[in-house]
Amino acid sequence: MSVGIAILHVIGASLWIGGLVALLVAHKGMDAGSIRRVALASTAGLALILVTGLINAGKYGGPDAWFQMGTTPGRVGEKLISWLIAAAAGGYAFHKLPSQQGSPRAQALLVVALLASLGALALGVMLSRGA
Ligand code: HEM
What we know:
The relative contact order is 0.16. The protein has one domain. The chain is mostly helical. It has helices spanning about 5-25, 30-55, 65, 75-95, 105-130. Protoporphyrin IX containing FE binds near residues 1, 6, 54, 79 and 80.
């Protein structure tokens, strides 16, 4: 991964995961406007992760190689699936929380998004070590 793109990828991951954690622990004490602002910054991070990740995934071949699960290039496909799960779960929670603070389903989906993102992070560390 080129250094600049790798840094942007990690900044995106920090924004996204930081936003999820902030909303998980603190959304009940926040007003709807603040929840929306954190969710927006977090979503910008999610988009940045995808763009920078795809730019660099080229070095592991194309979609044919990315979906050979269990191989090193297959980590890219595993990361894409984790990203999709995180985006779907986080997106639902971000839409629900401003109007329904404390919604058990939205909170559970924040946890799902966080776990899927930590999975993608672990796969990224494995990839960058050639595993
Ligand atoms: C929530 C989602 C994601 C998180 C938290 C995440 C996080 C990370 C982290 C921490 C690294 C290691 C950086 C380093 O050690 O330099 C990494 C590497 C990487 N990620 Fe992601 N990532 C995510 C999603 C994606 C997606 C969707 C793609 C592309 C489809 C992607 C492609 C890559 C690639 C190609 C590498 C570099 C491997 C290398 O150095 O050769 N990531 N990611």
